[in-house]
Design goal:
Order of helices and strands: EEEHEEHEHHHEHEEEH
CATH topology of one domain: Rossmann fold
Number of strands: 10
CATH class of one domain: Alpha Beta
Strand order of the largest sheet: 6-7-8-3-9-10
CATH superfamily of one domain: P-loop containing nucleotide triphosphate hydrolases
Radius of gyration: 23 Å
Helix content: 40-55%
Bound molecules: adenosine-5'-triphosphate, magnesium ion
Mean pLDDT: 89
Strand content: 15-25%
Length: 275
């Protein structure tokens, strides 16, 4: 039984001439305890995929099964409840609440669960200690550096001990020391049996993952297990991206030459009809 099963999921934005097919009939199964690295060029659909898996957005077509339950058409309130109970999000843009201290921000998800304030603060404080920010508990977000904000946001995402972590470039703007501490946290969470889906542009980070999913033009073009500490051959994959772009350009050129051919064949068929 898979934790997550995407069955021919598509996501289309806009309509008419402005239509973008962000996901094109994606099939994906994820088991509990996997650590998936999602990679691919900018615009290939990675964040869209994560948003759908994280129930932040709904697919246009297809079915999404979470623990065998069809969640593809749930109303927003039900989706919010599933998110709160199961998922931890780590995104590129973090939004801490500016008027709350670091400690209050980190403990906030526990408030939604009805845990007493004293216990919330205790847990948040332990979490902050783990990421080396215990001396910033009473700071406001604007008094922190970018990297510190990111770490606080990550602490907040993880405090509920969510069984599924959805991370979109979690170490995007961090220096290498902070990146390492975040990746170590994720590694620990994974080792405890939780599932992680992480978008990254950094091939070195695939050393932490158990599987790579590579996307191109809204489709998964490579999906395979990774050995321990294996680093993905990103050079080969981006070369294949380039070849795909060139192939597409060639096809477009052929298409632009086609109308003439079409017209003549139309004439033929009309002739055929009049006969
Ligand atoms: N809200 C939206 N409205 C219209 N188009 C969108 C929207 N969100 C994403 N898209 C389009 O869908 C496609 C996939 O976007 P997505 O954000 O999933 O890419 P990505 O792989 O995460 O890229 P990046 O590496 O730059 O973050 C892009 O062509 C993008 O322009
Ligand atoms: Mg993205």
């Amino acid at each position: 039984m898979s934790l997550i099963k995407l069955d021919s999921i598509s996501k289309v934005y806009g309509f008419g001439d402005a239509t973008t097919i962000a996901l094109d009939e994606v099939n994906l199964e994820i088991d509990k305890g996997e650590f998936i690295a999602v990679m691919g060029a900018s615009g290939s659909g990675k964040s869209t995929l994560l948003n759908i898996i994280g129930l932040l957005d709904r697919c246009s077509q297809g079915k999404y099964y979470l623990n065998e339950r069809d969640v593809s058409r749930l109303r927003s309130r039900k989706r919010a409840k599933i998110r709160r109970d199961n998922f931890g999000f780590i995104f590129q843009s973090f939004n801490l609440i500016g008027t709350m201290t670091v400690l209050e921000n980190v403990s906030l998800p526990l408030a939604y669960k009805g845990i007493l304030k004293i216990n919330r603060y205790k847990k948040a404080s332990t979490m902050l200690q783990k990421i080396g920010l215990q001396n910033r508990e009473y700071y406001l977000p604007h008094q922190l550096s970018g990297g510190q904000i990111q770490r606080v946001a990550i602490a907040r995402a993880l405090i509920n001990r969510p069984s599924l972590i959805i991370a979109d470039e979690p170490t995007g703007n961090l220096d290498s020391a902070s990146s390492e501490s975040i990746m170590d946290m994720l590694k620990e969470i994974h080792a405890a049996g939780n599932t992680i889906i992480m978008v990254t542009h950094n091939p070195d980070l695939t050393a932490y993952a158990s599987r790579i999913v590579y996307m191109r033009d809204g489709a998964i073009v490579e999906d395979k297990p990774l050995k321990k500490n294996e680093i993905v051959d990103l050079e080969r994959l981006t070369k294949e991206d380039q070849e795909a772009v060139e192939e597409e350009a060639k096809q477009e050129l052929i298409e632009t030459k086609k109308p003439k051919a079409k017209k003549s064949s139309n004439k033929k068929s009309k002739k055929g009809k009049t006969k």
